[in-house]
Write a structure and sequence with these properties.
The complex is a heterodimer of chains A (about 575) and B (about 375). By secondary structure, chain A is of the alpha+beta class. Helices cover about 45% and strands about 15% of the residues of chain A. Chain B is α+β, with helices and mostly antiparallel strands and about 375 residues long. Classes of the chains: A alpha+beta (about 575), B alpha+beta (about 375). The interface between A and B is large, with 94 and 118 residues.
Chain lengths: ~575, ~375
Amino acid sequence: MKKYALGSLLVWLVLLAAGLVASFTNGWRPVLGLDLQGGLSATLVPKPGTNPPESSVAEATNIIRQRVDGLGIAEPDVVRSGKTVVVQLPGLKTKADQERAKSIIGTTAKLEFRQVLADLGTPAAATTGTTTPSSPSVTARVAPTTTPSGSASTAPSASSVPKGAAPAAGTSKPTSKGTTDRAGATPVAYELPSATTVPPTTLATGTTVAGGKSTQTTVPAPTTTITQAEAIQKMLAAYPGSKIFNGDGGSYLLGPALFDGTVLSSAEAQLNTQSSQWEVNVKVKGRDQTKVNNAFNECYAGKPTCPPIRAGDTGGQRGAIAMVLDNKVISAPTVNAVDLPKNPNGFVITGNFTNKTASELALQLRYGALPVEFQPATLETVSATLGSNSMHAAIVAGLIGLAAVAIYMLAFYRLLGLVAIFSLATSTGLMWIVISYLGAHNGLALTLAGVTGIIVSIGIAVDSNVVYYEHLREDMTRGRTLRGTVRPSFKVAWSTIVTADLVSVIGAVILYLLTVGPVRGFAFYLGLSTLTDLLASWFFMRPVTWWLGSRPVFNRRPGLLGVRPHKIDPDAIVRGAKPEEVPA
Amino acid sequence: MNFLRRLYSFEDDIDFRKGWRVAFVISGLLLIGGIVALTVDGLNLGIDFRGGTSWQFPAQGTTTQQVRDGLSTVGAGDATIQTLSQGRNATIRVEVGTKVPADKAVAAMAKSTGKPAEVIAANQSQVGPSWGKDVSNKALRALIVFFIAIAAYISWRLEWRMAVGAILAVVHDVVLSVAVYAVFKFEVTPGTVVAFLTILGYSLYDTIVVYDKVKANEGHLTLQGDRTYTDMMNLSLNQTFMRSLNTTLSTILPVASILFIGAGVFGAVTLREFGLALFVGLIFGAYSSVFIASPIVAFLKEREPRNVQIRKNVLTRRARLAEMGASGGSEGAVPAGGSDEGSVPSTSDSDSGGRRPTPVVTSPYSDKHPPRPRKQGKKR
C-alpha cells in the first residue's frame, strides 16, 4: 500500500465521497449568479415629497451597493436608474429568503439618533404586571413641578461628574425609595426633568457605552405617584418634538432627532477578547464628532434633555441615546462614556450580544446611513440576464467541449489519458463540494465570470498530467524502465506543476483581496480550481500512475499507457550547424 | 498529420528561430495598429461602464426573444433583457448601452414586438454605470500589484530575465486582445474584463511551461558543448511543443465549443463576443510564449558572459568543422560530437543510404550533424 501511495488515494476518495454525500443530503447546491438564474429585484424610489439631487441618489447607490455586498449575497447588481435604485439579488427563490431580503433592503429609511427621555418598557408587560426579566424597568423620573435651583442636589449622577461642572438642574433630584418591580401594574413614580438646560460638562474619557436592555433593579422613589400614562402625557407636554417610539430595542419616549446616520463612517461587530463579549464598534466621521460628543455628554451627565434612566457601568444613573431606524428603535444603549475617544472617533456598544445580533445591529447602523430616504421597496422576481437560451447553449457547448478534450486525451495518452480524465473528475468533484457549501452558507454565487475561471482551469488541470507523462516518456527514452521512472519523474514533474500553478494562485489571491465584483468572483474560482488541481495531482494522479506503472503488463507494453519512448533521443535534436544570429 | 506525428516522436523538429524574426515584425505591426486603433477609436464601453438607457414595459404578448431580435437589427443584440414578475403582472426590462441611440432602439423594439412605441418608451430612464471609477481604480491597482508579485516570483524561482520576458509577453497578449475589441468595436463589459484576466493568467502559465524546460536544460550547457544558449532554447521549445499543444488544445477546445457551437449554432449572442475574446486571447497566449517570451530571454541571456563564451566556442568549432568538411573531411576530425559526456555520435540516416544502421542514441548529449560529405566513388 505504501509503495504506491495508495493510502493517500484512499483518503482522497473517501473524503470526496463523504463530501458529496454530505452535500447531497444537506441539499447544498451551487448558487447561480444573477446572469445565470435570475432572482429578486428590489426597486427603491425616494419618498414622495422629498426630491433629492441626483448626486445624493448616486451616493446612496454606492452605499447600498456596499451594504448589499456585506449581506453575503454574492454578486448582487445595484444600478441607479434616474432617481430610483434597482437592486437585483440572485437566487432567493424561497419565500423566506425573499422576506429576509425585503426586510433588509426595504428598510432603507434614515437612521436617527435621539436622546431617550423615558424608558417605557414593553406595553404588554405593563398591564399584566408580571415580572419579565427582559423588559426594562421604568426608569424615568418625574421631577416635581417646582424647579429646583442648581443646587447640589445629591443625585448620584451629578456627584459622579468628575470635572464638577454645575450639576444639571432637576435631573438629579433623588427620590425616596420606590418600588422595584419591572413595568408592573404597581404604579411607579416618575420624575419629569425640568426644562432648564445646563451647558454640557466635559467628563473623563475611557469608559464605554453600555447597550442592550437595562437590568436596572432600583427605581428612584417618586415624589408623587402617578400612572405611567399620565407621566407620559406630562413628558410629551414638557418636550415639544418628543415622540414615543417602539421597536426591537424597546419602547421609549424620545426627544427630537439630533443627527442621522450619515455621521457614522463605519460599524463593525467584533469580539472583545478581554470580556469575551460581542460588541459593535462604531466610528464617527471627524467633522461630526463635536455634535455627537455633545449629545452623548448630555446623556452621560443626565441633562434634562437626556435624563438618567439606567445605572451606568461606573455607577450612577446615566441617560441613553436611542438609534431609530425607519421609525423603529433598534437599540437604546446607556451612555457610559464621556467624550468619544479622538482617535479613532467612535464608540462601542456592548450588551448581551451574540455574533448574529451584533452583526445585524452593525449592518443596520451602516445601512441606515443613506443620504436619501427611500420608501419601502417593491419586490419582483427577475429572469436571468444572460437569457435562458444562452444558459442552455453554454451548458451544451461546454459539455461538447469537455467531451472533445476527453477524446483527445484518450487518443493521445490511452489509458493514462483515462487517468487524466478521472483526475479531472475528482478535482471537479471537490470544487462542486466547496462551491455548494459556500453557496449554501456564505452566499457564494457562480456567475459567468466564475464559469470562465473554471473552463480555463480544465486546460491547466490536464496539463498537470501531461507534464508528468511527457517526463515519463523522456526518461524511458534515456533507458529507464517505466517502473523505475514513475517516482523520480513525479518529483521533477511536481516541481514544474507547483511552479506554474503558484502563478495562478498568486494572481488569484491578489485579485481577490484587491478587487470587487465579477473580477473577485473570477479570482476565487481560478484560485479554487488551481488548488483542487494540485490536490488531485498529488492524491489521485500520483498513486494511480505509480500503481499502473508497476504492473508488468504495462511495462511490457507501455504503449497501452500512451507513454512509448521516443525513437530518437529528444536531446539529440538540434540544428546548430550553421552559425545563426542572435534573434532581433 | 504525418508531420505532427513525426514531430511528436522527435523524428522531426521545428526551427523556431526562423520564426522569431517574422514574429517580431508581425507582432510589432499588430501592436502598432492596435494602439492606433485604441487611441483613435477607443473602446466601445458597455452599459456597465458608461451607463445607458433602460425601458420597462408590460410583457403580455411579447417574448424576450422578440425583443432581442428587434434590437439585433440595430446592433444591440447583446442588450440585457429581463422579465420581471410580481404575481400575475410581468414586465420586460431592457438595458442598452450608449452605442445605440435610444429612439432607434425603441423603434426597433416596437417593430419586432408589435407594441406601440409610446408604450415601450413610457418608462424610459437613464441608467448609471454600475462599474464606477472606484472599481476600475481598484482593479488597476490590483493588476499592478499582481505584476510586481509575479515578477518577484519568477525572478526567485527562475530568473529575472525570464520575468522580463514573461511580463512583456503577457502585456503583448493583453494589448492585442484589447485592440481586437477596439478594431471590431465589440462591447466591453465586466465579463470582457474577466476574459482579459483569463488570457493574462493563461499566457503566463504557458510561458512558464516553456521557461521551466529551458531552465532545466540550461544546466546542461557547457563551455565544451556544441550548443549555444539559443540552440538550447530551440531544443527546449521543441521538447515542450507537444506539451504546449496539448495544454493549449485542452483549454481552447471548450472555449471554441462555446464560441462556435454555443454562439454559432445556438445563436446565443451574449456568448459570442465573450467567447471570441477568450478564443483569440488564448491563441495569442500560446503564440507569445514561443515567439515573444522565448526570444526575449534568449536575447538577454546571450549577453551573459558565460553564454558569450559558449557561443564563441561553438562557432569556432563549427567553423573548423566546415573547413574540414570542405577539404574532404578526414575521419580523424571527429566532429565535436560530444559534450563532455563522451557520447556516441550518431550519423544522419538520410544520406548514408542504409550503409550504416541508425543506432538509437542512448546518451542525452550527442548531436545530429549534417551529413559529412563523402569522397566520390570511394567505397567503404
